[in-house]
Amino acid sequence: MKKRIGKKTGFIVLFCLFAMNTVFADYTITYKVRVPYPVNKPKKIKGGEYDGYYEVADQGKTNPATGQPYTPIKLQDDPSKEGYQNPNDSNNYKDLGGIPQGTAYKEEERVIPIEGNNPPSDIEVQKQIEADIEKIAKKIEEANENSGATNNNKTTGLVTVNGTVTIQNTTNKEVIREQKVSASAPIGDPVLLSSGQYLYTETDIDLLVSGLSFPITRYYQSGKNISATSMWFMSTDSRIVRGQKFQPEKELATLNALYTDSVANYNDTNKKYRDLKKWYTDQIALCKKELSVLKKGRSEINVLLGRNLTASSRTKIENYIKKYDANISYYTNLQNDCERELDKDKKNDPTGALVKIRAEIAKQEVLLNEQKALLVQSEKELAHHNANVSYNSYAIRGSGFTDLIACGNDILKVYDERGVAFSYRIKEAPVYGAGQNHYPGGSET
Q1: Burial degree of 163 (CB within 10 A; 0-12, 13-18, 19+)
Q2: Where do runs of H (alpha helix) occur along 114-165?
Q3: DSSP labels for 47-61?
Q4: CA gap 50, 45 in Å, rounded
């Protein structure tokens, strides 16, 4: 017998469904992962002999599939000759474990669904991706076990992520943000093939408090000392490291030297202006003095021309007068030129020599002010750097951090429980002169 749903009941159901749809928003994490996969890789030993796949330890032993010792096989691998045997044809390796395998990599796009009314945080995204690629590595390990392949013929390597991932709201398709993620999961023996480093994870205790899990885990990576005294990194070792400016003392010394040179050049140019202006003034005074003497002398000698003179005497007097006139012309022109330059300087005429020097002085003043501002900023940044070094003395307890901190005063690095670093840039420029905490506006990715 069917029961009819009343209006009131139906309204409640619809309201609940509506509430469920509006309270919870689903999100996705989309990323690209580099996954290893096997490829045929025939191994030529010598001549036409190829390795019929076996483990080194089995050399000289009997292959149970054939009842014969494990031995290389002879293939006619020259296509130009009769009876060619393709080294990539699996039939040529029948009962010998298959064609020797190598490892290649392919890029796959993965999507991780996230439920909840808030988008996942940076650290949660990192954890989700780490868990997802560990699942991929686990499936490859299971495929290796089920294939019956020898250890040398199994797929090996790392499942890796190193790039930008996208966090998106699946309801309105809005891209919430993008972030950089770097993670890897070893397949089989947890050894990084690129470096030979051994990776190991051990959870010592997993506390459950109010439904929330708080595991205390140790992470090990050989050759990387990221803890106080060993290569183990505890999940409780999560920390914040303040960015430190790269070689701030050297930068300050360089800026000081440049500023000192610029001050010297500025002083030299100012002296050049003063000296030239004084020379013009002195020359005008000299010209006036000389012209007064020359004009008086010419007037006196000119009177002689009115007397009864011999031809030779008249010629000599006329030559004297010419010399007086030449000198008078020289000093008159010099005086005019000097007065003209001083007048151009007074009127700021750009063609004047003094004005050109003043223009150079103005440029040097701008340069000095810019260098002075850089110098003051560098001094403050050095103080900020020293303050961050002091703070970091509590946060840095191993060699694994020191290579990551010379990234600038406006960077914060957060190390998660695995020792993986996340970089954050402060929202606003550092405020100097307000104590050691120069991050008034907080930080953002």
Answers
A1: middle
A2: 122-147
A3: TTEE--S--GGGTTS
A4: 5
Helix axes 311-347, 248-303, angle to 10 degrees: 150
Looking at the DSSP bridge assignments, the partners of residue 223 are: none
Query: Rounded CA gap, 138 and 151, in Å?
Result: 16
Token pair of 111 as six digits: 């999507």
State the pLDDT at residue 54. Answer: 45
Q: Which residue has the tokens 């699996």?
A: 90
- Helix or strand (DSSP H, E) at 377: helix 353-395
Instruction: Give 265-312 as a DSSP string.
Output: HHHHHHHHHHHHHHHHHHHHHHHHHHHHHHHHHHHHHHHGGGS---HH
Residue 45, φ and ψ in degrees, nearest 5: -95, -60
7: left (phi over 0), alpha (psi -120 to 50) or beta: alpha
Residue for token digits 């749809």? 21
At 364-421, the pLDDT tens digits run 999 999 999 999 989 888 888 888 788 777 766 555 555 555 667 777 777 766 666 6
- Beta partners for residue 201, in sequence order: 219
Q: What is the pTM of this model?
A: 0.48
Mean pLDDT within 87-115: 75
Task: Round to whole Å and give the CA distance between 441 and 387.
Answer: 18
Give the DSSP H or E segment for 424: strand 421-426
- The whole-angstrom separation of Cα 20 and Cα 121 is 22
d(CA 95, CA 89): 13
Residue 353 in contact with residue 276, Cβ under 8 Å?
yes
- Look at the chain and count its residues: 445
Contacts of 391 (CB under 8 A, 6+ apart): 242, 436
For residue 106, list its beta bridge partners.
Answer: 35
Q: Determine the Cα angle at 22 with ends 16 and 23, to 5°.
A: 85
pLDDT of residue 251: 93
- What is the residue-wise DSSP string for 204-268? EEEEEETTEEEEEEEEEETT---SSSSSEEEGGG-EEEE---SSHHHHHHHHHHHHHHHHHHHHH
Task: Name 229's Cβ contacts closer than 8 Å, sequence gap at least 6.
Answer: 398
pLDDT in tens, 189-230: 655 544 566 666 666 776 656 555 566 776 666 665 555 555
